[in-house]
Amino acid sequence: MNIRMSLIPLADMLRNRGLDEMGQVQKFVDSEVLRLSDPYVPFLTGDLKRSGPLATKIGSGLVEYNMSYARKVYYFNRGMGKQGTASGGLRGKYWFERMKADHIKEILDGARKKAGVK
Q1: How many beta carbons lie within 10 A of that of residue 65, not counting itself?
Q2: What does pLDDT average to over the chain?
């Protein structure tokens, strides 16, 4: 009995599923993180919220808000605005963590679908 086996290189397997660097799955995840984070990002002038899509290279795996005050707002914002957490809204500190808690299932389901997982 003869058995023949051919293995596909890992890089090819990842590319076939869109899981390679700058692949379709990473682009989907990055764009979904930006889209779903939008209502959570503090908004005074809108500059911080707009900096996310402008500073992020979709597919890189790094979502970035590049305003000089972004770090301070991320950790210390009190959510006092009209749509802030203090008023029952979503905008406030730790916006990524709070968005992730609310939408992780959606993001993962979409990534699985993009990768062709059944």
Answers
A1: 24
A2: 94
